[in-house]
Structure prediction request, 117 residues.
Amino acid sequence: QVRLVEFGGGLVQAGGSLRLSCAASGRTFSSSTMGWFRQAPGKEREFVACIRGSAGSLTNYADSVKGRFTISRDNAKNTVYLQMNSPKPEDTAVYYCNTRLGFTDYWGKGTLVTVSS
Prediction:
């Protein structure tokens, strides 16, 4: 059974840094596209970043985080990371890890990130 568990959320000051982790289990994910999404209070869930390819060489970012956030993966640990540098108060949200296998989307339960000004 596929399981995604996010770690690393918490309170961070604007301009600081925070790293989120997503531990995947249930199969090998090295060739799967992995992504991060987020949902702020009162808003819809939105795309943040994704990483493709076993070498993690293909990445894509939302314009709002480009240049500040970096997605990476460690295939040996079946883990995906989101390095958040210079976060802003508007980055406050629950962050979710995602992967799609076939026609099925899998989600973690999320980790809350709060950015104080």
User: Anything to note?
Assistant: DSSP finds no helices and eleven strands in the chain. The mean pLDDT is 94. Residues 35 and 50 are 4 Å apart (CA to CA).
